[in-house]
Amino acid sequence: MLKPEEMTKVVVVGTKDILEETVDTLHRLNLLHITDYDGSESGFSIGKPHRIASKLSEYLVTLRSISNQLRISEKDSVEKKVSVKEIPSMIESKLAELEEEVSKRQDAIRAVEAELKAQEDLEDAIKPLAALPLSLEDYRGYESIRVFVGFVDSEIEDLIRDKTEQYELYTGTFEGRRVIALAVPVEKEAEVSKILQDESTFVELRPPNLEGSPESLLEGIRSKKEELSAKLTELESERERIKEEYAEFILSSEEYLTIETQKAEAPLRFATSENSFVAEGWIPLERYDEFERRLSESTGGKIYVSKLEVDEEVKDVPIALKNPKIAKPFELLVNTFSTPKYKEIDPSIILFITFPLFYGLMLGDIGYGVLLIFLSWIIMSKVKSGGLHELSIILLYSAFSTIFFGIIYGEVFGLPLFNIVHHGAVEYGILGINGPQIGMLHLPVHRFAEVESLLTLVLVVGILHVTLGLLIGIRNVTVEHGFKAAVLEKLCWLLILFGGIMAIVTAMPAIMGGATLNTENPIFAGGIVLVIIGLIMLVKGEGPIAIMEIPTLLSNIFSYARILAIGLSSAGIALAVNTICKDVLFAQGGVFFAAGILVLILGHTINLLLGIIGPGLHSLRLQYVEFFTKFYEGGGTQYNPFGFIRKYTEE
């Protein structure tokens, strides 16, 4: 927690006669993050893959192609795990036959789809011609006549008549557009073409090279399409049957081949000589004893395992984040930004607290919070793993925070939970009681009535959040470059921040015009001194140009006002929806009452969607921009051990 898992670099050395057993054990342990050998050591070369690697890869490519054609995904499940002992014989007996069967079905489906597309294109070409009283053969086969067919957007007959008296014009309407067939002498073709293009924006149609009336042809096309659609449905049903029949075999075999291919190609990552091999990599320090023991047992004590001395400045340590289960989902947000360095603080546990806190402060409504719980539960029940599952857990935490602050604000879908007194008049809440007194806090805290107090609160939260970031930054820079560098890079900003706060708070009455500024006030003077000291340290550490960053610090603090702004906008939308429905639509009765119900549902649904997106994005922005920039560099490499977590097979 707060720091990544402590790692140690290890070297595994053995003779080639135990290479296969070693690779099997390493893969089964799923612990060693292998450092690929770069060929730099004399006497060693990059290892060669196992002889069976090419055959396994060929099988795997074939199987993945079949899986893609059958549209099998990880969402498809198997009734029970398949023993790896059974799979090789299954692959030998089934794969070639399955590939042929699937390819045959897929080729047939593609052929039918292509024919269906051709019929649809032909139908689209003939449909406009059905508006004209001509057969398709009437449009072609003339030596002295040019026939124009297409869409026009204006009357053209008078213009054509000015050019020639010899013409035939047929018109019709298709989908609101005017269709024409115009026959003119060949010698007038150029002039008529110019009229059509210049005066009517002519769009030419090309009649298909067929014979017969458009109506009869269209009837035949529709019949053909129905026949092809039925055949396509039959072929797709057959493909679905094959998918159901072979899904277990495909998923288990693909997993088996993936694992065996990884193991067969593992020597490509090792250093090898004529008789021995060397593998280097990283493992969690606390698992070293188990790692050494298991390798020794699997090879009969023939393997040599040891820790390597590592330079303090080593850069390639893989990062395995170590957090309690409750905070694990927030590792997704950290890794999305950037994986932390090995010596950096991992902020996942901090996000576990601050992200839902900011979210709840913004949304703060019991009704919306309850809906978010149901939404997150639905997602978690449908998606059992992966990023979406982790996001649903984060949403669940945020939902509980939303309910908590909804109680404090006394809001349920924008309606008051407790009684509220407005200028002596009582607005009765859902519970019909006055809010309780909890210490100095009297519920509810009405957001629109307590804007100044809430603004002060969120700015204080912002100051604390930024301060925490700077304190962590001091720690990180101290570890990386020493305490002096931390003082000049980070502590100076804390002095400027709190010195500025002391000076501004004491000067605020004078700034607002209600009092005279007392420059002898020790708090004001102390604040100015802290700012000056901070500026001197800042210039010494980062140069005069760093002074340009001071407005950024101020904007960072003011940025936390978005917590109040987003919250007020959400509460305002809910209040507007409720007021429109209650005072306008419900009061009319009848049809207006039904419309009011619809407006109520749509309004709160839209507000809920905005409530999911807005607080989430702005809370994340406060973490990434205002908080992380004070201490976080990132750029680490995620821990990726050599191994595989089996889902469909078992040893």
Describe the model.
The protein has 651 residues and is of the alpha+beta class. It contains 17 helices and 20 strands. The strands form 7 sheets. Strands 1, 2, 3, 9, 10 and 11 form a 6-stranded antiparallel beta sheet that branches. The protein has a 4-stranded antiparallel beta sheet with strand order 6-7-5-8, with helices on one face. Helix 9 (348-363) runs parallel beside helix 16 and helix 9 (348-363) packs antiparallel against helix 17. The longest helix is centred in the middle third of the chain and has 52 residues, at 214-265. The chain is extended and about 105 Å long. The two termini are 34 Å apart. The model has no long low-confidence stretch (mean pLDDT 89).
Quick structural summary:
The chain has 651 residues and is of the alpha+beta class.
Show the helix and strand layout.
Layout: E1 7-15, H1 19-29, E2 33-35, E3 45-46, H2 53-70, E4 82-83, H3 87-126, E5 145-152, H4 157-163, E6 168-174, E7 177-185, H5 189-200, E8 203-204, H6 214-265, E9 271-272, E10 276-284, H7 288-298, E11 304-307, E12 318-319, H8 331-337, H9 348-363, H10 366-382, H11 387-409, E13 411-412, E14 415-416, E15 420-422, E16 425-427, E17 437-438, E18 441-442, H12 451-481, H13 483-511, H14 522-542, H15 550-558, H16 561-585, H17 591-627, E19 637-638, E20 649-650
Parallel strand pairs: 4-20, 12-19
Antiparallel strand pairs: 1-10, 1-11, 2-10, 3-9, 5-7, 5-8, 6-7, 9-10, 13-14, 15-16, 17-18
Helix pairs in contact: 1-7, 2-3, 2-6, 3-6, 9-11, 9-16, 9-17, 10-11, 12-13, 13-14, 16-17
